[in-house]
Specification:
Helix content: 25-40%
Number of helices: 10
Distance between the termini: 23 Å
Largest sheet: 6 strands, parallel
CATH architecture: Alpha-Beta Barrel
Number of strands: 10
């Protein structure tokens, strides 16, 4: 990336580097409970900040609560330029279980709990983690607007939404980011990415490293060999090239893997490589 494309500004006042970190994997198996090596998780979080990553995206449901607590333990008091985003709206009855609960009262409690765990007076970016089919979207977003008016959150984001749902939320308040599943293989949110670019929103792709089909995996390997990097670094480089709205947040529990992900920002794909990866049949 060039100097001009290394950063993105969220909500007009939060400028961060375009490779963030997602600390979901620093919890236990099934994204449940404490990590097997707490000291290693703390060391990883500190290394993330030491290496200049200044955007960390977590959620109250990671653990639940574990990821947020570890972030505070490792990094509080926080560097001035560090933006910590979190999410509310999913509850965890057990390992690998994710249930939606976006009732306003639940979101208010979730936000208060996140503030305590993160040791913050205000959360810079608070995101609705999902759309609850049992709760009108306007009610859920309205709860976040109320929290914003109370000074508990600075900016509001959405996660796991379609373009029409984003538009509904935008009628209620300023939305600054969207976080959807997106990678080379799963591009169902192409229209959401483009809407974010059009409206000046950040797009945070989760599960960004899927290789997908055999044809695409072969193409990734070929590009990786030319650049002297690995497949996941090429996949991240493609995301960064895909749109100026893109803010990938790859997660890991390994410092070594984190360093590899961070190096993806230095991979400059050619126009032909970018197109071939998007459609490996053309490569």
């Amino acid at each position: 990336m060039t100097d001009e494309t290394r950063t993105i500004t969220i909500g007009g006042d939060l400028t961060v580097n375009r490779l963030g970190f997602g600390p979901m994997r620093i919890t236990g198996r099934g994204i449940w409970g404490d990590p097997p090596d707490r000291k290693a998780a703390i060391a990883l979080l500190r290394r993330v900040v030491e290496r200049g990553v200044n955007f960390i995206d977590t959620a109250d449901s990671y653990g639940p609560g574990t990821s947020e607590s570890l972030i505070a333990e490792a990094l509080h008091p926080y560097p001035k330029d560090l933006v910590i985003a979190t999410k509310g709206g999913l509850v965890r009855p057990g390992p690998d279980r994710w249930d939606t609960d976006c009732r306003p009262a639940r979101l208010r409690q979730a936000c208060d709990d996140s503030l305590k765990r993160l040791k913050l007076d205000r959360i810079d970016l608070y995101q609705l983690h999902a759309v609850d089919p049992g709760v009108p979207l306007e009610d859920s977003v309205g709860a976040l607007v109320e929290l914003q008016k109370q000074g508990k959150i600075r900016h509001i984001g959405l996660s796991n939404v379609q373009v029409a749902q984003l538009a509904r939320a935008q009628k209620l308040t300023a939305i600054v980011s969207v976080q959807n599943r997106y990678n080379l293989e799963d591009r169902q949110s192409d229209d959401v990415v483009d809407a974010c670019a059009r409206d000046g929103l950040a797009f945070l792709p989760w599960y960004p490293l899927a290789a997908g089909s055999l044809a695409r995996a072969r193409q990734l390997d070929a590009v990786a060999k030319r650049h002297g990097v690995n497949r996941t670094q090429v996949a991240l480089a493609w995301l960064l090239r895909r749109s100026p709205a893109m803010l990938p947040i790859p997660g890991t529990s390994s410092i070594e893997h984190f360093e590899e992900n961070l190096a993806a920002a230095e991979v400059a794909l050619s126009d032909d490589e970018f197109r071939a990866l998007a459609d490996p049949r053309a490569g």
